[in-house]
Amino acid sequence: MKTDVIVFVVYLVVLMIIGIWFTRKASKSSEHYLLGNRSIGPAVTAMTMQSSSMSGYMFMGGPALAFQHGWYALWYAIGDAGGAIVNLSVLGKRMRRLSEKLGALSPIEYLEKRYESPMVRVVGSIISIIFILAYVFAQFIAAGKALTQLTGFPYELAVVIGVSVITIYTVAGGYLAVVYTDFIQGIIMVLGVTGIAVLALNHIGLSELNASLAALDPTYLSIWGKDLAYYGQWGVIIGAILIYLIGYMGLPHVVVRHMSMKSTKTVKGAILWAATWNQLFIFIPYILGLIGIVLLPNLADPEMVIPQLTYQFFPGFLSALLLSAIMAAIMSTSDSLLMQAGTILSRDVYQRFINPNASEKKAILISRLCILAGGLIGIVIAIYEPPTVAALVIFSFGVLGNSFLVPYVASVYSKKANHIGTLCAMIGGAATNILWTLLNLESLTAVHPFLAGLIVSFIGMVIGSRFGKGPSDKIKQLIEEAKGKKALPAKIEKNIAHELSPEANNISEILADPSWSR
Amino acid sequence: MQKFTILPDSISKEAAVATIHKLDSSQPYIAERKIYYPYQFVSYQMKVKALLVKEGALGCTIDMISGRESVIDSKPSFERSVLDEAERLPAVLSKEKAEKKAVQFFQRHASKKYKFLTVPRFSLKESQLFFRPFWVVSSEQNRFIVDAVSGKFHPL
Hints:
The complex is a heterodimer of chains A (518) and B (156). Chain A is mainly alpha-helical.
């Protein structure tokens, strides 16, 4: 057996042992109330969040963009570096307050309660399932490519093996303390990629890199892309920056973090860690893509820049370890995303609207079938029509952002935004991005699909909200309260136990009711 | 008078007022009344069929008015007490609805940790309605609830 494969297998076994150890420790300390472990600090939370959300794209998609387009690709990185901060500043506090007042637990449930319409939940669920699956497919393709590098197997075989390993890892690792294994993987990935960058930059400094790029093709240095492909196309540039700068506000699985803030200190700390980590890390994969142009001139698949550079600069064992970490991170991202999609379908759609009296057993069966179908379609797409990881991630990220960004932002800033407006914004935004991408309208109009989707979604919300019933007085009141005007002394504000919000709302209502108050 | 299951309070009327007054000494606060808020404590035995079978107990409380679920780390200790109708908030949810919400909540939680091929099975261990005491503390301008068990507070 190839040494790399042995390293990979040993790596997975070690991860599993760490997982079992942490799980045993956690369950002992909380008297077998297994899910009660809430002692994870901001650094671990941040690292877990970043490593799982960025695995496939940052190691394959981002560098490939830079490899193909030169410095232009950095527009995406610039947006991404500020994404977490914008997300928190615009939505963070208001959305947490409003979701607390609405008593909403999931991001789709939040939309349903805010816009007072079950239809919003159905449409939101369907869009999020489809594009969460697209994310998973991107991870499958990335897994296949990483495994090809690791084992030397043909890509098709590597995809089948990769997805099989995901299944085995999921079954065997059913009790893994995922958070800690993700944390360890995150550390290895960051150290590994930073290590490659240091070694590569030692080999070819930034000035030398730019000189070499200019010698190959001066347009690599241009902000307009290779061959000045996007020359003067500000619509494309703005879209490239905005997609990751504000797009996060439209991702249900990111937005949910605002709602699940238990300790505001932890979440603020986590965001601070994540934002700092972003500044340090986000640019590196893109720079490695640029280095790849010079050092790997004959590279056939641009998405293999990091795996190839790993083997070039690290001794065999370390490169196998790094690739194993990437592969394991891709796997842990795929299985949880798949599971999320299955849960949304069975709970938010099937159990709620199709068969409300379905037994738990039936709901689980539906959930499994959905996941299985999603997995199989993913394998077929990954083998027969594999788009690039970058294209798939940008596409699914863009559609999710275009569907949900305007509804989430309007939910806390507008008292006029209603369910018709939201449905128009979600459907209009998603449809525009899909059509813009499929029909390649970007080259015709010089407008990025994300920007086009955003504009249509915004117009949809404004016009749609003029029709149908407006938000109820209760919702308007809650939006006003969510602004968080400080009416109380600062010391009191600081010490409010937000988890008591539903109780406070209910007690307020009951005390105000003359028929109860005695 | 009917007896109910309650969580024993550890914060006295004076301590509740002091909690708020310590943070805002600009105005006098008084404890208006005590209110008992309804919850359902639900505990399930969970079994996961992975390579190694995993078993464990899970507990949560369901807010019987708004239906919100909260995980708890250990079973609370209750006591029985007579409650006046005027100090007890009526439950909106039924016992069955609360138990269903609890199992769905565990499913959601567990499925995040235990992945899709190892969907856990749940069997009901315990289900009990109980009331948690809150002090309503107010001044001329502000009104708060103070949790009589933990001392945490929230404005009304």
